[in-house]
Amino acid sequence: MNRRELLDLYYLEARAKLIDVAAFLDRLERAEGASDFRLTAFTQALTQLGRSQEPRVVRVLASLSDPTTEPIPAATTKAACGAWPGKS
Amino acid sequence: MRYIEPHAHMVSRVTDDYRAMTLAGCAAVCEPAFWAGFDRSAAAGFYDYFRQLTEHEPQRAAKFGLPHFSWLCINPKESEDVALAREVIALIPQFLERPNVLGIGEIGLNKNSRNELQVLEMHVDLAARHQQLILVHTPHLEDKLKGTRLILDVLRADARIRPERCLIDHVEEHTVKMVLDAGFWGGMTLYPETKCTAARAVDMIEQYSGERLWMNSACDWGVSVPLAIPLAALELRRRGHGAEAIDRLIYQNPVRFLSQCSKFKLPKEPMASA
Lengths: 88, 274
Hints:
The structure holds two protein chains of two kinds. By secondary structure, chain A is mostly helical. Chain A folds into two domains: 33 residues; 31 residues, no CATH class. Chain A has three helices and no strands. In chain A, helix 2 runs antiparallel to helix 3. Chain A is extended and about 50 Å long. Chain B has a single domain, classed as TIM Barrel. An eight-stranded parallel β-sheet of chain B has the order 1-2-3-4-5-6-7-8, with helices on both faces. In chain B, strand 1, helix 1 and strand 2 form a beta-alpha-beta unit. Chain B is globular and about 50 Å long. Classes of the chains: A mainly alpha, B alpha/beta. The interface between A and B is medium-sized, with 28 and 31 residues.
């Protein structure tokens, strides 16, 4: 598909998601209390949306990933939260 | 349209889902062993679960003319307890000859711990000793990139393992290339929030040819969509892919991988859409 066709197919959906992100950040700003490493990671991931050689989606996913290479000593939880706490 | 659902946790789904999948063109469903949402207290719980996967669930699917296959293991989410894992793994060989068992899975890592790695190696050894196919779960979200690398290291370190007989599931854009470059198959899981959307799955198919890729819903007891594959087929169609290309991705590709197990046989005429 060419760019125009892809815009026809996905523009409104992407626009809605973009506005949702903006509203999410405003909502967090209006709220009281401390933030945590997830917002830091999210904000850093947003900076990966600029153009470069490597695809944006790969850079965003890598930015939200644990960059270490060694196994952890023990699993203390089963869940993942979507951001690596070590970056905070 | 016909399709294979290569990864669905049907023990967690209602019977209506079997009916909807069959109506949508599902020709076979494959069910890897999974975490129940809570930790089982003893190996006996897994014995009953393996009976459910190999006796009860195929009968439930058969009511809709749907062949049901399964994979066996202790899931990575319960692999921190190595002693329990050892007991469960010892139970598996007695089930391997059952007619619907395709191999060992979904094994892998969850939080990338040392114990999880040890249990992964035990599973890989079991698969190698019994010449079984392997289905691998890669970790969620922030743990996926590191976990996928660790898993590939384990598989490549064992000379008995042939990459073309292993499928690495839940790949995303940051892991798909390393999986395919190493000769493994990749699975793309279509989830509403985590893993990947249909649009992103089509992106990866277009970039990596789709030769060794399949899609699955991995529907389970969480928020998930049992009809995710037919919905992804619709996305492929919207993106201009023809009927033959769609059939190759959602039917022929899984059949090609799964047929490496001689027990994966389908009726000559899969149940057609109503």
